[in-house]
């Protein structure tokens, strides 16, 4: 919900426009849970000065968490984390060559002292990054926390209402 009325609480960034088909799932979850966000392309390799400015100014702009998706070398989440004390959630984007394993290993293998929470490769990881970002925001926002709790209750009820696995 990129909105003029609510300041974004979550930044959703990606290394390239080609990452959007994955990262849109993080945005969809944030929208479903009513969490204001901003989204943009910030490349660790092509726009490092923009990356540093974005990360260094994130808290000042009111962000509480950053979701960073990247493929291949996947330096974006770690580089962002090196420039801010905000929680950074890394989403490995599937690559053509190694199916996202390269992205996963690049993000998850951060050296001690620079933390990046790493999610699953692809759509599931992006969806869960949006959910986890909402849970973090929900620590200080009762409305978001209630939306997360309602989402989880809905998931539980869906399983309970459909116990038969056959179509």
TrEMBL record:
Record carries keyword Lyase: yes
Q: Does the keyword Iron apply?
A: no
Among the Pfam families in the record, one is AIRC
Q: In which pathway does it act?
A: Purine metabolism; IMP biosynthesis via de novo pathway; 5-amino-1-(5-phospho-D-ribosyl)imidazole-4-carboxylate from 5-amino-1-(5-phospho-D-ribosyl)imidazole (N5-CAIR route): step 2/2
Where the record annotates domain PurE, the positions are: 8-159
Q: What is its EC number?
A: 5.4.99.18
Q: Which UniProt keywords apply?
A: Isomerase, Lyase, Purine biosynthesis
Query: Superkingdom of this entry's organism?
Result: Bacteria
Enzymatic reactions: 5-carboxyamino-1-(5-phospho-D-ribosyl)imidazole + H(+) = 5-amino-1-(5-phospho-D-ribosyl)imidazole-4-carboxylate
EC category: isomerase
- Spans traversing the lipid bilayer: none
The family line of this record is: Belongs to the AIR carboxylase family. Class I subfamily.
What's the protein name? N5-carboxyaminoimidazole ribonucleotide mutase
Q: Give the species.
A: Halomonas alimentaria
Its taxonomic placement starts with:
Bacteria, Pseudomonadati, Pseudomonadota, Gammaproteobacteria, Oceanospirillales
């Amino acid at each position: 919900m990129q909105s003029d009325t609510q300041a974004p609480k979550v930044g959703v960034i990606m290394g390239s426009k080609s990452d959007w088909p994955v990262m849109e799932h993080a945005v969809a979850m944030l929208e479903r849970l009513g969490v204001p966000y901003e989204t943009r392309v910030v490349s660790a390799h092509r726009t490092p000065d923009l990356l540093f400015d974005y990360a260094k100014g994130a808290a000042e702009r009111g962000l509480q968490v950053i979701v960073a998706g990247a493929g291949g070398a996947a330096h974006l989440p770690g580089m962002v984390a090196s420039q801010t004390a905000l929680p950074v959630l890394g989403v490995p984007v599937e690559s053509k060559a190694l199916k996202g394993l390269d992205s996963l290993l690049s993000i998850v293998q951060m050296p001690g002292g620079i933390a990046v929470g790493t999610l699953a490769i692809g759509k599931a990881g992006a969806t869960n990054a949006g959910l986890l970002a909402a849970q973090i925001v929900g620590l200080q926002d009762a409305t978001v926390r209630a939306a997360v709790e309602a989402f989880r209750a809905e998931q539980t009820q869906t399983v309970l209402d459909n116990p038969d696995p056959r179509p």
